[in-house]
Every structure is written in C-alpha cells, then in structure tokens.
Specification:
196 residues; alpha/beta; 4 helices
Amino acid sequence: IGQVIRKSVKGELLADFKSQRKRYILWGLFLVFSFLFVLYIGPLEGLERFGLISQKKSNASAEASNIYYVATTGNDSNPGTEALPWRTIQKAANTLVAGDTVYIKAGTYTGNVSPANSGSAGVWITYSAYPGQERQIVLDGGRFIISGKNYIKVSGLKIQNVPSSGSGNGIEIIGPGSNITVSGNYTYNTYGSGIS
C-alpha cells in the first residue's frame, strides 16, 4: 500500500511540476515579448499603433521653429538666413510666428519695432542679439513696442535717443498681454521710461 501511495504522490507531483513549468514558460515568453515590444516600437507608439490608445500631438511640436537673421548689410527682400539676412528688425517683427527666433547682428538700426504676432506656451517668439554681440545692437531713435501680445522674449538690445513723440519709452509693453520677458537690454537717453 505504501508503495502505491508513493507512486501516486510522485505522479501528482510530476504532473503538478509539468503544469507549473508550462505556466512559467508562458510567462517567460510573455515577458520577453513585452520587453521586445517596448524596446522596438516604444510603449505609447506601440499601443497607439494597435489602436489601444490615441496620442494627442502637442501644439508645440506642430508650431514653426525657424531661425532668422538681421544685419545692417542685409536687405528685407532676402530670405532672412545668416548668409542673406534682413535689413530691418521690423521685417523680422512682421514675419516671426510662434517658435521663431531672430538673431540681430551688431550695428545701428532706426525706426520703431512692433511685433505682429504672439508666441504661445512652450513656443515663444524671440528677438535676441547675435551670440557674443549683446548690447552692440543699437536701436537709435526708435522704440520697441509690444502691444497686446503674448510669449515674446527680447534680449541683448541697446535702445537710445528716443524722442518725445509718442510715449518716449524705450521698450513699451501695452496690454492686454502676458508672458513677456525683457532681459539683458540697455536703454539710454529715452524721453520717457527705459522700460514701461
């Protein structure tokens, strides 16, 4: 009887082991497949590809992201590249849209500048001195006027000799608007405030 019981128990253990082994193999294959799935096509992209989720593309990635240049040797009929820059800052102000940057090279510029467009969250419009030429960009006798715009950065400019006509302010921000960053600029001999 004891031998029969031992054989019965042994048979049950063997059958249980085989069942468990099959389960472990299936789990192992599932984990390997999951790892390869994530590694090869990415978790979110893969789920989206099989229709399990729907990713919404961010507005930031859909926005433009161009870099333009302005120089005193340029021409406003140029494409605004570094090799063929624009001549006036206002040309850039008329052209730039969310995500765009203009680098302004050293020299003296005249006339008011007033951005035509706003940026948006994560995709600002940037007016900047060409790297290494900060405060060598002189806006002489003109104002930088940001009126009713959002998400605009202005940096590295020198604004001087602003007359009494208009407000007389060097850099003027007029609402409604938000997220305007003015940094690293210099104003001199303005009839009104340097920045208002």
